[in-house]
Amino acid sequence: MLHPSYTDLMNIVNSKVEPGEQPVVQSRYSIVIATAKRARQLIAKVNQMSDEYYFPLDKKPLSVAINELYEGKIKIIGE
After folding, report:
1. What whole-number distance in Å separates Cα of residue 19 and Cα of residue 64?
2. What whole-number distance in Å separates Cα of residue 61 and Cα of residue 27?
3. Is the pLDDT of residue 40 over 90?
4. For 7-32, what is each residue's pLDDT tens digit?
5. Cβ-based neighbour number of residue 54 at 10 Å
6. Helix or strand or coil: residue 70?
7. What is the CA radius of gyration of the chain?
8. Of the four, 8, 57, 66, 67, which is 20 to 30 A from 25 by CA?
9. Long-range CB contacts (< 8 A, 24+ apart) of 70-76?
10. What's the CA gap between 20 and 28, in Å, rounded?
11. What is the pLDDT at residue 36?
12. What is the mean pLDDT of residues 56-74?
């Protein structure tokens, strides 16, 4: 089982939406795409930094992306 769950992530992302506005995330697919994009950004950053010095990830990039989303450190911008 995933922790946090999809519904928890969706609730956190949509918590700052004004009443009457369309939610930023409406499906699990949106959460998956957003976290995958962030994980790719993290991987690219590590690869860029590895040219200068060795910088290993303690956690997997996807786990880091999910935790950042859950803690509100990153924001999903709708179209």
Report:
1. 30
2. 22
3. yes
4. 888 888 888 778 878 888 888 898 88
5. 7
6. helix
7. 14
8. 57
9. 70/4, 70/8, 70/9, 70/12, 72/12, 74/38, 76/13, 76/24, 76/25, 76/30, 76/34
10. 21
11. 93
12. 85
The position carrying tokens 């859950």 is 70
pLDDT band at residue 1, thresholds of 50, 70 and 90? very low
35 neighbors 69 (Cβ within 8 angstroms): yes
Which residue type does 31 have?
I
Amino acid at 23: P
Judge residue 43's burial from the number of C-beta atoms within 10 Å of its C-beta, 0-12 exposed, 13-18 middle, 19 or more buried.
middle
Long-range contacts of range 55-64, CB-CB < 8 Å, 24 or more positions apart?
Answer: 62/35, 62/36, 64/39
- Taking a C-beta distance cutoff of 8 angstroms, is the pair 12, 72 a contact? yes
Q: With contact defined as beta carbons under 8 Å apart, do 38 and 31 qualify?
A: no
